[in-house]
Amino acid sequence: MPSIFNPNRLDRQTLRLGAALITVYLVWGTTYFALDVAMQTLPPVLMNGARFVLAGVLMLVIARWQGQAWPSAAQWRASALIGGLMAFAAMALVVLAQQAGIGSGLMATVVTTMPMWLALWTRWGGERVPLTSWVGLVLGAAGALLLALEGDFSTTLAGTLCAFGAPLAWSLGSYASRRLTLPAPAMASGAQWLLGGLLGLAVAWLWEPGARAVAWSEVSLASGLAWLYLVVMGTMVTLNAYLWLLKNTTAALAGSYSFVNPVVALCVGVLLGGERLTGWVFVAMPLIGLALALILYGREAMQLARSLWPSRQPGSVTGAR
């Protein structure tokens, strides 16, 4: 399993890894803004459930067109667990936290706990997490915390609980997707999204105010386009890239998007939302860059350091002839 970039060997797998990371970094950084726009005239849990149902149906059609077999009973159960944790629980908690008024700064900070949770689950599961990755995770979280100073920390208790629950649910679903036996990639994605989306629709129908009687004529064009963007780019393109990363690289690298997304979200806020930046950004961004460097190249750097500074033999004297 390739864990990091090898600058001396840019093969197809390395290029694919880079493309997947860039996609996850950039697109998911814009989805906070898209969620805000979509929720202006759509019930959040209903909106989210419909998003994943449509994406799941389309992905299942693509999978069958590619000749992929339907999941077995065990694979349907695994897909239900992963979809329930990621497509339903995590995403529903995100939209509920934003609806509850949580500030963007606090949300950006909380999201950075996801890769730490994921690294913890993988460590408990017997997978080794390099020390450099742990250091990178801590530095990335520190950088995101500084970015959080750009935002509004005002929130409710319910919003705070939802915000902290979202990355926890996402990390559990991410870990399960690394460990459970799943069908071919497109079929696995479609099954997870469809089942998670159906669960979201059921919960919205039973408990969400306004979900049973949505005035579709009052849904704005901006909300509709934002929802479509979430379906195509936020789910079908980027979530597929993330699920591929979970299977083909380390947990720390796959989860590193959570450090970059707040930077992208902040830039989107400046360009589209008229937000202003302070000096904290110019402290946070180098920290996040260093965190990514440690996660990407930390192991190679340690190996290079050992080769250039070999340990002395017992009893040897420096400079002895």
On the 0 to 100 scale, the average pLDDT is: 82
What is the number of independent domains?
Answer: 1
**Rg over C-alpha atoms, rounded to the nearest angstrom:** 21 Å
* Uncertain parts: 316-321
In whole angstroms, how far apart are the ends?
A: 44 Å
Principal-axis shape equals globular
Report the portion of residues in β strands.
Answer: under 5%
> Main β-sheet: number of strands, strand sense, barrel status?
none
H and E string: HHHHHHHHHHHH
Query: Structural class per helix/strand content?
Result: mainly alpha
Q: Please give the share of residues in helix.
A: over 70%
The number of helical elements comes to: 12
Number of strands: 0
Structure in words:
Helices cover 74% and strands 0% of the residues. It contains twelve helices and no strands. α2 (44-65) packs antiparallel against α8 (185-207) and α5 (113-124) crosses α7.
